[in-house]
Amino acid sequence: MSRSVLSVLVEDESGVLARISGLFSRRGYNIESLTVGPCEHEGLSRMIIVTKDDVEQVKKQLNKLINVIKITDLSELPFVDRELAIIKVSSRQNRAEIIEIADLFRSRIIDVSEESLIVEITGDTEKINAVVQLLTPYGIKEVARTGSIALLRGKKSAAKV
Description:
Blueprint: E1 4-11, H1 16-27, E2 33-38, E3 44-51, H2 56-64, E4 68-73, E5 79-90, H3 95-104, E6 108-112, E7 116-123, H4 125-139, E8 140-145, E9 149-152
Antiparallel strand pairs: 1-3, 1-4, 2-3, 5-7, 5-8, 5-9, 6-7
C-alpha cells in the first residue's frame, strides 16, 4: 500500500486530536506519523497525518467532524516533506567514523560527551532511515523523531479556508 499524507486544518481546541485519532483507530488504521502545530490562520492548527492505509473513507469521516476545517491529500499532489531526528550514538570507539557519516548526510553533531555523540539530521523519511541504518552498528542509544511535516509545492495552498 502506498503512503498517504494528509494535511488537515482543524480548530485549535482541546479534544480535536483525540477525536481524529479515535476515528483512525475505529477504522483499524495505523497512523505512521502525526504532527500538529499552529498554522498561518489564528485559531487553527495544521495536522500532518501519514499512514500507509487507504484513507478515502477516513477523509469522508473527517469531513463530518465539526472541528475539521479542510483536508488536503498531499500524496495526490506535488509536495515537500521533512522530518527532524536526533540520534544518540555510543562513541567510545569509532568517533571519527560517526562524524564522517554525519558529514556525508549534511547533519550536525549537537552534543559530545565522553560516551556518546548526538547527531541532528533533517530530511525526508528515507534519508533519516538511511542514517539510522548506517549508525546502528556503532550502537544507537536513543532516537527521537518529529514525524513528517509537509506543504504543497508551487502556488497552490492547502491552507485556503
